[in-house]
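Before a computer can learn anything about folding, someone has to put a protein's shape into writing. The three-dimensional part falls to structure tokens, numbers that each stand for a local backbone shape. The protein below has been through that process, and both of its lines are reproduced in full.
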Amino acid sequence: MLGGWTISGIINGHSGFPWSPQICPGGTVEYPGSGIGCIFPLSYAGGATNSSDNSTFEKPFGNFPKNAAGPEVYFTVPTAAQLAAGIPPAPMNIHRNMFRGPGYFGNDVQLAKAFGLPKLPVLGENAKLDLQANFYNLFNKENLQNFGGADSLVTIGGAQFGVAQAGLAGRIIELQARFSF
């Protein structure tokens, strides 16, 4: 009963998935004839913090504390005249995936034990019962979902700028039993 247990684990951590700032005023800004609806800002003025801690992404403007004054504090937004004249110049210091989202830390553990069964005519010589328990996010650490969707683009401005909109799964326990003969 006490011998033959198997314990294995996985520790996974990262500093957060990258995301890119974009501007979508009313969702209708388009370069003439291009079909593009959202654009990069013209430039980034700097001054944002670089924390990937969950507490940063639980409050509005977490890494952008001066954003309550408007996105212009950090980003140069193209004017209507620049948009009407065609595609504005390429961003000077804006690039794709230049910021990081919420960090992630998870620990998964597996506990397993195989019990041999007595030799019986019906079961055969090598009958056994395998019991296994998988614990995902064992310590129930809060992990936030990266914002920006699959393309990692985040619209700047607004009251929820920089706030993670959902959390990832909490602790999950999975039990398995397998009988083999």
In short: Residues 27-33 have pLDDT under 50 and may be disordered. The radius of gyration is 26 Å. The longest strand covers residues 104-116. The CA atoms of residues 154 and 173 lie 34 Å apart.
